[in-house]
Every structure is written in C-alpha cells, then in structure tokens.
Amino acid sequence: MVPLQSVALLFVALGALLVVLARDVVRQALLFSLYGFALVVLFLVFQAPDVALSALVVSAVAYPIVLVGALARVAAHRKRRG
Amino acid sequence: MLPYLLAVWIFLAGLYGIVTSRDLIHTTVCVSVCQSSTYILLLAIGYRKHATAPVYGDIPSSRRVVDPIVQALTLTDIVVAVAVSSLLIALALRVYDSSNSLDPSQIVGQRG
Amino acid sequence: MAVIPLLVAIPLVAATGVALSGKWLPGVAADVAGFAAAAASVALAAVVLVRSGGIVTYWFGGWRPARGGFPIGIGWAVDPLGAAFALLSLGLVFACLVYSWRYLKSDRYLYVVLMLVFGAASAGFVLSGDIFNIFVFFELVSVAAFALTAYEAEESSPLQGSFNFAVAQTIGAFLVLFGIALLYGRTGALNLAEIGRRLNADGRHDGLVVTAFALITCGFLAKAALVPFHFWHADAHAVAPAPAAAVFSAVMLELGLFAVARIYWTVFAGVLGQFEHPIRDVLLGVGALTAVVSALMSGLQRHLKRMLAYSTFAHVGCFLIGIALLHPDGVAGAAVYILSHGLAKTALFLVGGILLTARGGIDELQMFGLGRRLPGAAVAWFVAAIALASPPFLGTFTGHALIDDSAGAAGYWWVPIVLAFATIGSTAAIIRAGLRVFFGIGDRDDPLLSEEPAESPPPEEKPRLLVMNTVALLLAFAGLAAGAWTGLAAEAVHAAHRFTDQISYIHVVLDHRPAASAPPGEWVTTTSSVVWSVVTLVGSILLGFASTIRARLPRPVTRALAAGFTPLRAVHSGHIADYVAWLVFGTGVIGGLLAITIR
Fold first, then answer.
1. Does residue A32 belong to the interface with chain B, where contact is any CB pair within 8 Å?
2. What is the domain partition of chain C in residue ranges?
3. Which of C252, C272, C333, C535 registers the highest number of CB atoms within 10 A of its CB?
C-alpha cells in the first residue's frame, strides 16, 4: 500500500504544479482533468472511495468540461469581433 | 507526515498561480487547485494505517476503518467547491462581457 | 426550543420556492413571499431572543448527547448575543427587501432569493455551536454575497470588483478550513464545546493549537475587512447594489468578528488563556491599524458607496478593539456599537441607492447640489451621520463608552484616541459628501479625491421613492435612538458575561446543566466618555465642513497632502493578484506574531 500511496502523492504534487504553471488556459483545463484523475487515485489509495467518486465526477470530468465551455464562449466572442 | 506536506505544497502552488495569473479563468482554476489541498488535508487527518474504507456492508464491524467523519466533511467541501467554482466562472464571463478582456491588468478596475 | 431551526429554515424554504417558481410568477408574488418569509423569521428571532436568557441548545434529529457524553449530532447553542445578532441581520434583510421593492429591474425574484439566503445563512451562522456548521453557513453567506455583488451585471459597472471579492473570500475560507481540520485532528470533535473541553483537558498549547488559532482568526479577520484584508471588500461594496452593500456593511463583516469572538471564547479561551496579554496586543494592533487607515481612506473617496465602505472598515477596526480587550465590557461595547452602526450605516447606503435612482449618480462631485430636492434622503443621511459620530447619549455613544472605559481599566490609554480618530475621520467624510450633494456647500472640485469612478446608469423605471425614503429615515432614527437606550447597555454587559464564560458554555451544551449565573449587567456613564463623545461630535462636524473647502488650502499644502496619500492609494491597486499577496502577507505577519508571543 505504501509505495502506491507515495506514487499517488508524487503525481498529485507534480500535477498541481503543472496546472498552475500552464499559461494557456485550454491546456490548463486538460491538465486539470489529469490532475483530477490523480486526485481520484490518491483518494482511492487513502481509503476514501466515496470521496473519490465525487472527485471523479467533479474535478476530473464536470469542471474541465464547464471550463472548456466557458473558453469556447470567449473564443467565439473574440472571433466574431475579429 | 507526507500528505500534510503535500496539502501545504498544493495550497502554496495554487496561491502562486493566483498571484502570477494574467487571466481570470486561469485564476479560477488556481483557486480550485487551492481548494483541492483542503480535501487532502482533511483525508490525511482521518487516515489510519492498515485500515480499510468505512463501508460496513461487506466487512466485519470489528475491522479497523479510517475516520468516516472527515470523508463526510470532504464531500461537503467538494459541494462548496462546486458552488464557488461555478460562480467564479460565471463572474469571469461577466467581466469578459462587460470589458472584452480576461486580463486583469487590461480591465479598468477600481483604484485608491 | 423547537422554533430555533425554523428561523433559518423558513427563509431558506421560501428562497427555494421563489427560485423554482420565480420565472412564472408575477414579480409582486416574489416580493410578497420575500417579505412574508423575512417577517416571519424576524418574529421568530425576536421570540428566540426573549427566551434565550441563559443558553438554549437544540440538537438536530434529536442527537442530544448523554450527560457528559460525546456529541455526535450537530448542536446549536443560542445565547442572547447570538440571538440578538440573528435578529439584527434578519431585520435588516427585511428592511432592505421592503426598500428594494421595484428597485431592481432585471429578474427581481433572484434578488429576493439571494437576500433571503443571505439572511438565513447569517442567522444560522451565529446560532450554530458546531464549527464545521459555522464554516458551511459562512460559505453560504459568501456565495449569496458574491452573486449579489454581480447583480446589476448588465450595466457596464466595474465587475472585476465582484470577481476579486469572490476569489479573496474563498481563500480566506480555506484558511479557516485548514484551522478546523487541525483542531479536528487534535480533538476528534467538531462541536465547539467538545473541542474546548478536550483542549482544556489536554492542556497543550503547542504549535498545532497556535497554528489552528492563527489560521481561524486570520481567515475570519479576512472576512471582516480588517487591514490588510480590506481591499476586496471596498471593491465589492462599490459594485454591489445599494441594499446589498448595506447588509454587507451592517452584517457580513461583523459576522467575521463574531466568529473570531465565538471561537476564541468557546475553544481557545482555556488553553490559551495564560497568553491573553500577547493575543490582546496583536488583535488591538490590527484593530487600531484598521481604524486609522480606513478613516484616512474614507476621506479620499468620491464614489459614495466606496466612501461608506471605508467608513465601515474604520468602525470594524473599533469593534475589533472592543473584542480584543478580551473582557466582557469590551465585548458588550462592540455588540451595542454593532447594533447602532448597523442601523445607521444601512440607512446611509440606502440613501446612496435613492440618489442613484432619483438622480442617476453616486459620485460626490458629479452629484454636487443635485440632492437639493430630496429632503427625506437628506434628513436620513445627516441623522445617520450624526448617529455614527457618537453624540452624547445617542447613536454609537454607548458602544464607544463601554469600549473606552474597558480599555481604560485595562491600562490602554490610547484606545479612546484611536476610536475618536476613526470616528471623526470617517464621519467627516460622510458629512462632507452630504453637504456637497444635498446642499451644494463647498467647492466643486477637490484635488484630494480619487479618480472618477465608472458607475452603472440608474437601475430604475418607476422609483418608489416614498417607500425608500421611509425605510432609510426609520433606520437612521433607529440608529440614533439605539444609543439612548441605556438599559440595552446593561443587558449587553450581562449577555457578554455569558458569552465569554467558556466553562459555563461547556456545561450547558455537554452536561445539560443550567448556565452559571452571570453577574447582573450594570453600566454607568463616566465623565470622560461624555467628554470624548462631545469631542467626536464637534470634531466630525467641524472637519466635515472644513473638508468641503479643502481645495482652498495653499497649493503646496494640498500638493504635499496628495503626495503623502499617493503610496496609500497605490496600494489599493484593484488587482486580485496584489490582494491575494496581501492576504498571504497579513496572515504571515499576524500568525508569526502570535507564534512568537505564545510559547
């Protein structure tokens, strides 16, 4: 169990850094999705399956989709403006 | 100890992202990163070594489990996070609608 | 008392109903539902206040712990100060709902929903005895507030303010949550009384306890707009519709202070009691800095709502001074001060809304003389301003006097001076703006004021000026009269003794014992407090008149003054990145000071 936990911890630590440092917002949304999956794994190996389930829905799937939707709206707006 | 350090690390990383952010949507993602540090801290506090998940359906009730209360707290925290994140995105879009920019230094704010 | 949860549940249920059906209902129906729900919960809050003589507990779902047992359920513990706060916040929400009848044009039902949620959550916040419950209620207050700040979003107002507000408040909430998690890790409890009992039994005041204390205190101070956590609050007040800004000023900021006091006295008072002295010094320093800086800043604003926001921060600094004295008299002073300030400040913001509706502006110099034909608004403005100036035996006088006397007894001779400075500075700004707007007295230009704000056009097609004026006038006079009621001060002292008695709180909540008898409240006016109140009243009026013509000072003097204020102004950059940096810096300094002094 312990090695698995260490790997999960490492992935989350790196993931957070990558999300924060990504300057392009679309790339950041995708990275956040990956980070969300890393969090899900972390919650699983720390014996929190129900938290992992909700993190799977919220952090890994729903939130990035909403983000991409918001970005698409902004991009469409920009295009119309020229 | 490691999970606690990880929580602090993620919180600081999120703060760094906010402080250096040039885009309001980028800022909201960094706030979400900050928020995820609170989940990790809460779960770390409830974690017990060699314990299993607190789901009593298929394990004997004498089995050592991790603290279920912090998991309930984390779930509440995730719900709060959903509300706050969606509001932040909505606000960022409204800022964009009113000033055609997401860069805080290009938006005429309030000073003084 | 089974009615306790109802006073939160009724507005929440009504808000849900209005939110679901508002699209199809006529606007009037949403208004009426809002009035009815708010009025019902105000009445219930009054009942709870009258009957909460000791401390009344309520356990959700009947999960009342056995005598001395571990509290598994969520418990509320209602004491007189908490009940009075709930009554104040629900009452002001009701007044603002009445005032804003037809104030906003777009989707008014959503505004009613948000105000009801705001009122309900703030009431739940002050009544709860469970630390996580408190956190969730504060998040609910904050989320309602974020949405309210962006309410007039169709207009071209500087919406960045509401975004800054939301981000910074959320990070403040994380600090609180970190602190709560640490406390849970140490004690395994979330009930305030149980945490307090376990910390007392444990007796350790190591890094973990101090860190938790620092994080929770800083997180809630950030929500109460103490310097250097005030930036985003000023932006939010300026952006929000006037009635929403009014409840922010009168209720939301004070909730943060209430939480600091509540959690200190239920959780930390025992284990950190021996460090009362350094804790007092640190908090007094923060309060005094806030009072002085905000009073100066309020003199530099030309956007009326922003000016009123800084005036509120100056008073919030004074409230923190009252609480930081860590003595029942100081707490009682802060409580009655919060009451009269809340009423008067709400009236001022509502007058700002009247100006915006009837004259289409909220800028002091653009509105020069335009308020001449608004007698009701003018009377409400000046009455409320006088109420805030701590005139003898009126308005904020009792609060000032209690805090001054308590500070004098503890040897803090400088507290009355700081309170007087904050009062004179902030009230003079209100009087200056009123003289210019309502009477056209003074100069049309002022080199010391900040740059011209961008403001949304008036929100209104059919203003109900009569209703708006009446509400503002009633609140202004109520704020003035609150200080004349000396019996209230004695009641507050009595209630504050109860509020600050940790052992009695623990016994009531966990051991089902009756509350220990608090000493009967008594309050005598001292000569020095009357002298100080004359000083603040006369000083405010004189400085208010003088600052309408401050452009006539010799050129070098105004230039030097403007140059002196430049750094202070530059700090208020309007950038979320800077605000978060200040938040981290402030937390680091306050936490560091606490960590150094508590050993």
1. yes
2. 152-553+569-597
3. C333
What does the alpha-carbon distance between residue C548 and residue C551 come to, in Å, rounded to a whole number?
8
For an interface test with B, give the residue of A2, A6, A43, A46 to mutate (most B CBs within 10 A): A46
The span from the CA of C333 to the CA of C399, in Å, is 4
3-class state of residue C484 by DSSP: coil
pLDDT tens for C265-284 read 999 998 998 898 999 999 99
Per-residue model confidence (pLDDT) at position C138? 92
C282: its two tokens: 């640190």
pLDDT value for B110? 63
ipTM of the complex in this document:
0.93
Q: Within an 8 Å CB–CB cutoff, is residue B10 touching chain A? A: yes
Pull the structure tokens for residue A68.
């991409």
A79 vs chain B: nearest CA distance in angstroms? Answer: 12
**For residue B86, what are its two tokens?**
């969606």
C462/C450 Cα distance (integer angstroms): 32
Of residues C477, C303, C307, the one with CA closest to residue C380: C477
Q: Is A7 on the interface with B (CB under 8 A)?
A: no
The single-letter code of the amino acid at C277 is: H
Reported as a pLDDT band with limits 50, 70 and 90, residue C145 is: very high
**Cα–Cα distance, C520 to C564 (Å, whole number):** 49
CB pair distance less than 8 Å for B16 and A73: no
Residue C544 near residue C430, CB atoms below 8 Å: yes
Q: In chain B, whose CA is at the least distance from the CA of A52?
A: B75
Residue B18 has pLDDT above 50, yes or no: yes
Instruction: Decide: residue B101, CB within 10 A, 0-12 exposed, 13-18 middle, 19+ buried.
Output: middle
Task: Determine the Cα–Cα distance for residues B63 and B50; give it in Å rounded to an integer.
Answer: 10
Compare all CA atoms of chain C with the CA of B110 and give the residue at the minimum distance: C574
Q: Are C349 and C245 in contact (CB under 8 A)?
A: yes
| Residue of chain C whose Cα is closest to the Cα of B45 | C185
pLDDT, tens only, C284-317: 999 999 999 999 999 888 889 999 999 999 999 9
Contacts of C181 in chain B (CB under 8 A): 38, 41-42, 45, 70, 73
CA distance B9 to chain C (A): 13
Higher pLDDT, C429 or C63: C429
Domain that holds residue A24: 2-81
Closest chain B CA to residue C239: B110
What's the pLDDT score for residue C104? 62
pLDDT class of C154 with cuts at 50, 70, 90 = very low
Cα separation, C255 vs B89, in Å, equals 26
Chains that touch B (3 or more CB pairs under 8 A): A, C
- Residue C52, pLDDT > 80, answer no
Which is nearest to C104 in space by CA: C158, C42, C137, C147?
C147
Of the candidates B20, B70, B77, the beta carbon closest to that of C577 is on B20
Residue of B nearest to C131 (CA): B73
B22–A48 C-beta distance less than 8 A: no
The alpha carbon of residue C302 is apart from the nearest alpha carbon of chain B, in Å, by 10
Predicted confidence (pLDDT) at residue A36 exceeds the cutoff of 70: yes
Structural domains of chain B ordered from first start: 2-99 (1.10.287.3510)
Tell me how many domains chain A contains: 1
Query: From the CB coordinates, do chains C and B have 3 or more pairs under 8 Å?
Result: yes
Q: How far is C294 from chain B (nearest CA, A)?
A: 12
Which of C132, C150, C575 is nearest residue B94 as measured by Cβ atoms?
C150
- Give the pLDDT confidence score for residue C326 in this predicted structure: 93
Average per-residue pLDDT for chain C: 89
> Taking the mean position of all CA atoms in its chain, how far away is CA A11?
12
Taking the CA of residue C218 as centre, how many other CA atoms within 13 Å lie in the half-sphere pointing to its CB? 29
Cβ contact A81–B66 (<8 Å):
no
